Amino acid sequence: MSLYQWMDARLGPADTFSVPLNVNALHYGTGVFEGIRSYATQDGAAVFRLREHLLRMKQGCEVIGIDFDMDEIGEAILAVLRANQHRDAYIRPLSFYGSGLGLDVEALQQHHWVASVPWNSHLGSAKVKLAHSPFRRNRHTSIPPLKLCGAYVNSLMAKHEATKRGFGEALFTDESGLVVECTGENVFMVKNGQITAVEHPDALGGITRRTVIELTGADSRAVSLEELREADEIFLTGTSAEIAQVGQLDQRELGPNPVTLTLRARYLGIVRGESAEHERWLTRF
Fold it and tell me: How crowded is residue 66: how many other Cβ atoms within 10 Å of its Cβ?
């Protein structure tokens, strides 16, 4: 049975939607997406920090000139989840330019699409093997750190290179040796029990990153690769990755991760509706 999706104000089976091969977004990356999670709770299911995700997506759409209605897409997300009867799921909204080749997109049709699939953390609960990448992250002065489709070729290249070397994720640094982020996650370090959020202008403003800072009061600042190598613990944050412990950075193996594991357990409790204090972050459906 086909899963339900939503496109351009219509909810229907996924196999009833299609786009032609000359769609502009396929050729030039002229689209904006988000990655959003829903979770099963004791009282139904809930989307985590839906409004924050939609605000970031709206920012991306404004950059490339796509009209974006947060209320419409928010309702579409909930409709898709209900139609698919999904609880633990990954939600992918996508806004993009339609048929037409070339970079003059003003006259092209704009499309909006939403899908959901059953999901668990893409990095899993095992420790991540992290490799310092030879590639640089897109500079924020060239491409803003938002979820612009074409920009993610940069992530693909770095991830592919790290995978060929036997690692599970790649770490970007800049020309000065400052840590930026991973291909799809922000970076944190723990030293002497103190949590630090890596800050860099080229890094995505992660919603899970913001959540961890709000929960822990972590210091947000620039961190060099040399300092990161000396950390007691390293962990990664992202909507799909949640809070993932790093077990190895290049050739250095890290020890136990008590701070990371405690924080991860707290986070998973919050997204599953176990904290009345943080109910405001949940959109129940």
Answer: 21
